[in-house]
Amino acid sequence: MSADGVLLAVQQLRRNVPGGIGTYARGLLQGLRTLESAGDAVPEIALYASRRTAEPDPLEETGRPLRLSRLPGPLLTRAWDLGVVRAPDGFAVVHAVSLAAPAPRAGTAAVIAVHDMAWRHAPDAYPARGRRWHEAALGRALRRGTAFVVPAPAVGEELVAAGAPADAVRRIPFGCDHLAPPDEAAADEVLARLGVRGGFLLSVSTIEPRKNLARLIEAYARARPRLPEPWPLLVVGPPGWGPDLEPGVGVHLAGSVGAGALSALYARARLLAYVPLEEGYGLPVVEAMSVGTPVLASPVPSTGGAALEVAPDDVDAIAEGLVVLAGDDERRAALTAAGLAHSRVLTWSASARAHVDLWTEVGCRTGR
């Protein structure tokens, strides 16, 4: 491996629930492959993570060289936190896809992705241990980082206020062209398992307090009698933490579904409702927009003015938004068109090109 290469710390892809950060890591790799296929100059890329947890190793499927620790994931990230394990040497840049970032070796630049600082804005939506870890991890990132990638201007402003040099913060939008081809049969199986027939409303997120699903479910209960049809609300996503949700009449908790099934559900849904309390970006918003589904959202950065926005703490406003977006065909058509136009320019190849430019700027030479 050339000393001019980039080491991507992708421990998030070892997690049982990689979440939006995992989507970012996979999308970045997808964008880099697209650039390489087009003949663009891209540095040599290797992946860094804990020891294998399955055979074959999913990271091997990326086709990238792997630098794997002998440690299991929890021990490796703890060792990163304590500084007793640093990133492998031989690379010009180490890029961490989250605040779980190893310290770089001397002479190596560290680029760290900071997706949000939501634990400061919605502390009750995080367990106390999680708040402590995030705050400590932010401090380590500010000490270790050469440059920082953020998905939205507001996150960058918060990061600068926390102590990052303004010229070290780079806003790089995420792509949304990563959805798998729709698997209609798999979507049929999900809906049959839940007893859902015909149209439905959709929400996609990890089930945790920050995602505000309890208020969404309460709003749906108020909206349901006013919908043109009593369409059910389908909540797709893995369990996170916090109290159990009380689904209520017409609400179905689907859990995690396969990538192809999710793509098909996005396309079939009457609307996507995504109203988190705090969000650094909000990938489900642009995922839904990319397949022509209108979106009801709290004012998260990813909307681009192409969603019907509501205050996340106002249950009546969320309910009214559900009624309007489910039943007003003119409003639906306008938001569908706006969403398609907004999402069309959000590609992972463009995001990857901006990453390559940043890596080059901080010390990495590109080449084939």
Mean pLDDT across all amino acids: 94
Please tally the helical runs, counting DSSP H or I stretches of 4 or more residues.
12
Architecture of the largest domain, according to CATH? 3-Layer(aba) Sandwich
Secondary structural class: alpha/beta
Instruction: Please tell me what the overall shape is.
Output: globular
Termini separation: 13 Å
Widest sheet, order of strands: 3-2-1-4-5-6-7
Total DSSP E strands: 13
Tell me the domain tally: 2
Unreliable spans are: none
Order of helices and strands: EHEEHEEHHEHEHEHEEHEHEEHHH
Describe the structure.
A seven-stranded parallel sheet has the order 3-2-1-4-5-6-7, sandwiched between helices. The chain has a three-stranded parallel sheet with strand order 8-9-10, with helices on one face. The chain has a three-stranded parallel sheet with strand order 11-12-13, with helices on both faces. The protein has twelve helices and 13 strands. It has two domains: 185 residues, Glycogen Phosphorylase B (Rossmann fold, 3-Layer(aba) Sandwich), CATH 3.40.50.2000; 161 residues, Rossmann fold, CATH 3.40.50. Strand 11, helix 9 and strand 12 form a beta-alpha-beta unit. It has 368 residues and is of the alpha/beta class.
